[in-house]
Design a protein that fits this description.
Length: 137
């Protein structure tokens, strides 16, 4: 009986490892600023810090249709692909823009050994949530 339990636990652990290996680890997203824009009724500005460990990435996603996003890399390097644009690696101090309605096809740490961090500033309708919606596979 004990050996069956051990075998089941080993099989479960291997199954979880196989699933985990198929998908890169997720990143951490922290809202660091959220404020209505006083002279533009119904609009807000939100600052978000995105942190990826080595090899981490986010699945393809969209943001609210009204979101204009400016992002700058604070640490490491990001591999970014916005639909209709070539994939590019952005390093510390470099930035990119996502126009309203963009599809973020690739968002990944460009390094398998170093962390990466960026600040994304959203200007969007105040009532729009969530900030990220994964694409259906």
């Amino acid at each position: 009986m004990f050996s069956r339990f051990v075998l089941a636990a080993v099989f479960a652990a291997l199954s979880v490892s196989a699933v985990s290996a198929a998908e890169p680890p997720a990143g951490k997203v922290t809202v660091v600023f959220d404020r209505p824009i006083p002279n533009i009724p119904g609009k807000s500005m939100k600052g978000v810090v995105v942190e990826y460990g080595p090899g981490a990435a986010s699945p393809a996603h969209t943001h609210p249709q009204t979101a204009f996003i400016y992002a700058t890399v604070l640490e490491g390097a990001f591999r970014i692909k916005i639909k209709g644009q070539p994939e590019k690696i952005y390093k510390v101090g470099e930035n990119f823009v996502e126009e309203p309605g963009s599809v973020h096809e690739v968002s990944a740490n460009a390094s398998a050994t170093e962390p990466a961090r960026l600040l994304a500033v959203f200007v969007l309708d105040t009532d729009k949530t969530p900030l990220v919606t994964p694409l259906e596979k």
